[in-house]
Amino acid sequence: MSSTLLKIAIIGEGVIGVSTALAIRQALPTAVIKIFSDRPFEDTTSFGPAGIFRFNEDQSLEKLEKAFGSIVYNFRWLTQRELSLICAKPAKFGIHYTAYAAEGRRFVSYLKNQLGNTVEYKTQKIESIKELANQDFSLIVNCAGLGGGKLAGDDENVFPNRGVGIVVKAPGQSHFCYEDADTFCIPVVGDDRVLLGTLRQDNRWDREISREDINDIWTRVTELKPSLNIQKL
Questions:
Q1: Can you give the residue range of the structural domain that contains 73?
Q2: The pTM is what?
Q3: Is 130 contained in some domain?
Q4: Cα gap 146→155, rounded to integer Å
Q5: Count of structural domains within the chain
Q6: Helices (H) and strands (E) in the chain, counts
Q7: Residue 47: is its pLDDT beyond 90?
Q8: Which family does it belong to (predicted)?
Q9: What three-state secondary structure class fits 79?
């Protein structure tokens, strides 16, 4: 396919928008790509500390192994002895595996470096995809995150599931722990930092973090991993 005349608009400058731009650039080297955003990257979800993609419905353990076993490294089921040593609370099963952790603020910066000056960035709030329809774009890609539903004409089925992350200094942590859907500790890059989380609150649009939020996360994480040597919040 010739990309000489292709003009492509991407709405959203987060990890999905920028990775989409890079994929298109690699496939269509001469396409004209413009990325629209309505706010600085630092104010987007991608700049935040955590975003874990997972299946939405319950799955059997066999399906879990089939889904992830060939993707991650060193996938295996923990023995009962290992569970008793690792988990402070009784656990029916546990999984060990090795995976990459990518911080949005670092990953998006890396993607932009890969793109270099081959795309145009424009700060503009797009209220509707129709706004771009008369600008001769061959393709418009909706990567607007929470705003994507409204852009596509669906103002009800896209809503936030609010989470809170706490970054602490905890030397010597090289393994992540993840329990159920909302309790985890993940080592992040630099200065012995560990990310603790989280909450899952549907339709919470505000960004206020309360003392109750912090105490809730703190209690659950320290119960999950009592050996966590937290030195500084």
A1: 61-102+160-224
A2: 0.80
A3: yes
A4: 10
A5: 2
A6: 7, 12
A7: no
A8: Belongs to the DAMOX/DASOX family.
A9: coil
